[in-house]
Design a protein that fits this description.
By secondary structure, the chain is α+β, with helices and mostly antiparallel strands. It has one domain (12-74): Multidrug-efflux Transporter Regulator, Chain: A, Domain 2 (Orthogonal Bundle). Helix content is 54%, strand content 12%. It is built from four helices and three strands, in the order αβααββα. The chain is globular, with a radius of gyration of 18 Å.
């Protein structure tokens, strides 16, 4: 007997993203996403010869990157005008 899923149809497909979907989602070049995944700089799983990304982890990663970038901007020395 199969258990019924409480999830919406297609929920799994929208949760797991391809490289091109992540590139479009983050508005980056697909090559950039490949480089980030290969370097381990973005949360990804390699399945065979393709990369897969979990949307929730991408969102969390982006928030952390944005927070870190803003902190670095705050720590930068301010240039005073003469």
């Amino acid at each position: 007997m199969e258990t019924e899923r409480a999830e919406k149809p297609g929920a799994v497909e929208s949760e797991i993203m391809t490289t091109s979907e992540v590139a479009e989602y983050l508005r980056l070049a697909e090559a950039t996403i490949y480089k980030l995944a290969q370097a381990g700089d973005i949360p990804a799983v390699k399945v065979g010869r393709t990369w897969r990304f979990k949307r929730g982890l991408i969102d969390e990663w982006f928030r952390q990157e944005a927070t870190q970038s803003s902190r670095l901007g705050e720590m930068a020395p301010k240039v005073s005008e003469p």
